[in-house]
Automatic annotation (TrEMBL):
<keyword id="KW-0858">Xylan degradation</keyword>
<keyword id="KW-0624">Polysaccharide degradation</keyword>
<dbReference type="GO" id="GO:0004553">
    <property type="term" value="F:hydrolase activity, hydrolyzing O-glycosyl compounds"/>
</dbReference>
<dbReference type="GO" id="GO:0045493">
    <property type="term" value="P:xylan catabolic process"/>
</dbReference>
<keyword id="KW-0119">Carbohydrate metabolism</keyword>
<feature type="domain" description="GH10">
    <location>
        <begin position="400"/>
        <end position="696"/>
    </location>
</feature>
<dbReference type="Pfam" id="PF00331">
    <property type="entry name" value="Glyco_hydro_10"/>
</dbReference>
<dbReference type="InterPro" id="IPR003305">
    <property type="entry name" value="CenC_carb-bd"/>
</dbReference>
<dbReference type="InterPro" id="IPR001000">
    <property type="entry name" value="GH10_dom"/>
</dbReference>
<keyword id="KW-0378">Hydrolase</keyword>
<protein>
    <recommendedName>
        <fullName>GH10 domain-containing protein</fullName>
    </recommendedName>
</protein>
<dbReference type="InterPro" id="IPR044846">
    <property type="entry name" value="GH10"/>
</dbReference>
<dbReference type="Pfam" id="PF02018">
    <property type="entry name" value="CBM_4_9"/>
</dbReference>
């Protein structure tokens, strides 16, 4: 595709830049840091708000750096966390080129452990500055540790500095072996080999509980709990989410594992599956769960976990109560070989009996699901169109049999991404964004902590710039977010306010933002992540949420007001189950809040289509509101796996009638929140995930060829959006016309004048 080839050319251009940069180092060293190991004392280094000193490692043998170098630097007499050591790198660092950063760090003084941070600060030639936090690591006073990270600069550079900071005041910061080098390009990955994967087959042995003594062959107890098999009483049908993946299967046995004498939450039944797991394969988890209601009257959180070499990975979570059987679903994958892996069921409180029936762990056949989703998409997203070709006044119009070519140039389904003000400084990022997306959301620039970092100090300049850019390019914009309910996302001056002052600040924020941008943002996320936070509710009462929605609607009636939260689509967080989300929205609406949309953030790993679809089904059926994926990203080490993950979510979204838009949370490596989720590499090369997005966009365009019939009509079924029509008559007369297919339930008739 055109975008792909142009960005591949950009990668070659950056390789030339990198080659030119390396030629600046006469000794062949790629490091742009001067005097990196302090062999030349403190030359080229300076203090940042404190004092720095040179320390000889041989004088304090217990301080010997990792590399055994003779000297290291100490930042001392520090009175602020940002005090540290820095070096100017102007003239040696380039924009649009990725860099690896490494430093040996350690602390000394009143703390035994503290965070150490390496950052880059750039003053732009246009007066715009860029700050990049490159890496953060907890250092100790016992040993040296290696701090590592990567960065990419967008602005044209006037001055640039790298600096190391972070520990609390009074703690000395020790630094050695600092390196900033152009990042080496990783070798291209290979697609995983799934040729030996048997899809839909349970990895667990004896899942029907009929083999071995007591029917427990293959099963083991985690901890000192007791396992037994109960011969009946469990559901015999597959849980619905598994049924969507597996289709019609032999009914379950009706038996279940009973775990008793549980003395801690993690005790329960398990199976070892080390030798059965394959790298990069997505596994779906399915089971029926129940707790012994006679042993508790409190709802219990029960989960299925994959334990890999001591690390616990969630495979699904559900709230279980009242003695009924509950479906649990989830997913996982591994990206590195495991020495030991097992599946475990647990989570209920100590003393609560736990029952497990029909537990299955099976590889998901995504390709088969994709075929099904293509058919659904054609039903949900296309409309019947009839082109009525009227004769001209002169009578020499378009006769039957004329050749018709209909080509769609733009699909109107909202597909957007997060952008930030600094992205506008990088023309390559801008080009990819404009070419591939029709909606935008600002990463930080509309959030309260950005627009008013200190009370009364208002900054809308970045949001204004982004909004103007989007208008110039015909891109619609979501407003994210008016408030953020999670406490660690609230700026310190807001946290310090008493109830009356906080209430006044909330009203000022609403008035300031929504008056300034009235009719500018199509949506607003009113109070972000209310399922996971309660900052404003705890201080102003539950009714504050209703008040936020009402006031926002009064100030900007045209904007659709959304709730927005994470983990709702993944079945691994009971705080954010679809049922919890539904209760929240219904409570808001009962209080008079004009909730107009439901946001699923979509920060997902190893997504499984039927699990996502089940969540959207429940939300759509219960609320009848439009659903948007608002912050989609799919991190995976292998870009081919990442591409398939992206395809899973996009296909599920576009095929579901309740979903009205999808927003990605960034797309460019080192310029987005989540690592290993990018569609474009730092050097500008579109990777497999980016190519998959472009492939789907091409698939979701409709083209049709044929001839005008005897009634002077041409019929086709196509996606909503913009089209061009070309007609060629037998007499070689040509006619061209543009038209748009908009949403509707009936056949769209479009008159074409010849």
């Amino acid at each position: 595709m055109a975008a792909d080839s142009s960005h591949r050319g950009l990668g070659s251009e950056l390789l030339v830049q990198k080659s030119n940069l390396l030629s600046l180092n006469d000794d062949g060293d790629q490091n742009i840091i001067l005097n990196p190991s302090f062999d030349d004392g403190l030359n080229n280094w300076s203090a940042r708000g404190c004092k720095i000193a040179l320390q000889e490692s041989t004088a304090t043998r217990n301080m010997l750096p990792l590399s055994g170098t003779k000297y290291f630097a100490v930042a001392t007499e520090r009175t602020q966390y940002w005090n540290g050591i820095q070096q100017e790198i102007t003239g040696r660092v380039q924009r649009k080129l990725a860099y690896d950063v490494a430093a040996a760090v350690r602390i000394q003084g009143s703390a035994t452990a503290a965070d150490v941070i390496v950052s880059v600060y750039v003053e732009g030639t246009n007066g715009r500055n860029q700050f990049v936090r490159v890496a953060k690591l907890q250092a100790s006073d016992k040993d040296w540790v290696q701090l590592q990270g990567k960065f990419l600069l967008s602005v044209s550079i006037s001055k640039a500095f790298v600096y190391i900071e972070g520990p609390p005041a009074g703690v000395d910061l020790l630094v050695d072996n600092v390196a900033v080098k152009p990042a080496e390009k990783s070798p291209p990955p290979s697609p995983p080999d799934f040729s030996n994967v048997v899809y839909g087959v349970n990895l667990l042995e004896n899942s029907d509980l009929t083999d071995g003594p007591g029917g427990l062959s293959g099963w083991l107890a985690i901890g000192s709990c007791k396992l037994s098999v109960s011969p009946g009483g469990a559901p015999r049908m597959l849980p619905p989410m598994a049924r969507e993946s597996l289709g019609t299967r032999t009914p379950l046995s009706g038996r279940h594992v009973l775990a008793t004498n549980r003395t801690t939450t993690w005790m329960g039944p398990a199976q070892t599956i080390t030798d059965k797991l394959q790298l990069h394969v997505t596994y779906q988890v399915s089971a029926w769960l129940r707790v012994g209601w006679s042993t508790t009257s409190i709802a219990q959180i029960v989960g299925v976990s994959l334990v890999v070499d001591g690390k616990w990975i969630s495979g699904g979570q559900v709230e279980v109560s009242d003695g009924r059987w509950y479906e649990i679903g989830g997913s996982f994958r591994i990206e590195k070989p495991a020495s030991r892996a097992f599946i475990s069921v647990g989570g209920a409180s100590a003393g609560v009996d736990l029952m497990v029936a029909g537990l299955q762990i099976f590889p998901v056949d995504r390709k088969a699901r994709f075929k099904h989703l293509k058919n659904l998409t054609n039903k949900v997203r296309k409309r019947e169109v009839v082109l009525k070709i009227a004769p001209s006044e002169s009578g020499d119009g378009i006769p039957p049999g004329s050749i018709v070519h209909v080509k769609q140039s733009k699909n109107s389904f909202p597909l957007g991404t997060c952008i930030e003000r600094m992205n506008l400084e990088n023309e390559d990022v801008v080009a990819f964004f404009v070419e591939n997306f029709n909606w935008a959301v600002f990463g930080n620039e509309l959030k309260w902590y950005w627009t008013e970092p200190q009370q009364g100090v208002i900054n809308y300049a970045d949001a204004d710039d982004l909004l103007a850019f989007c208008k110039q390019n015909g891109i619609e914009v979501r407003g994210h977010c008016i408030f953020w309910e999670v406490e660690n996302a609230v700026q310190s001056w807001v946290k310090s306010l008493g109830k009356d002052d906080l209430n006044a600040a909330v009203q000022n924020r609403l008035n300031s933002l929504l008056t300034r941008y009235k009719d500018q943002f199509r949506h607003y996320d009113v109070d972000n992540e209310m399922l996971h936070g309660s900052f404003y509710q705890d201080r102003l009462g539950k009714e504050v949420h209703v008040s936020m929605f009402k006031t926002a609607s009064e100030l900007d009636p045209a904007a659709t007001l959304f709730v927005n939260d994470y983990n709702v689509e993944g079945a691994a967080d009971t705080r954010a189950s679809p049922e919890a989300y539904i209760r929240q929205v219904l409570d808001l609406q009962a209080g008079g809040a004009p909730v107009g949309g439901v946001g699923l953030q979509g920060h997902v790993r190893a997504p499984v289509g039927p699990i996502i679809a089940a969540a959207v089904d429940r939300l759509g059926a219960a609320l009848g509101l439009p659903v948007w994926f608002t912050e989609l990203d799919v991190p995976a080490e292998n870009e081919y796996v990442r591409a398939e993950d992206l395809e899973v979510v996009l296909r599920e979204a576009v095929a579901h009638p309740a979903v009205e838009g999808v927003m990605l949370w960034g797309f460019w490596e080192l310029l987005m929140w989540r690592e290993k989720a990018h569609l474009v590499n730092a050097d500008g090369e579109v990777n497999e995930a980016g190519r998959r997005l472009q492939m789907l966009k091409e698939e979701w365009l409709s083209h049709a060829r044929g001839t005008v019939d005897e009634q002077g009509e041409f019929r086709f079924r196509g996606f909503l959006g913009d089209y061009t029509l070309e007609i060629l008559t037998p007499a070689a007369k040509r006619l061209s016309q543009a038209f748009t297919v908009e949403k509707g339930d009936t056949t769209l008739a479009i008159n074409i004048t010849s």
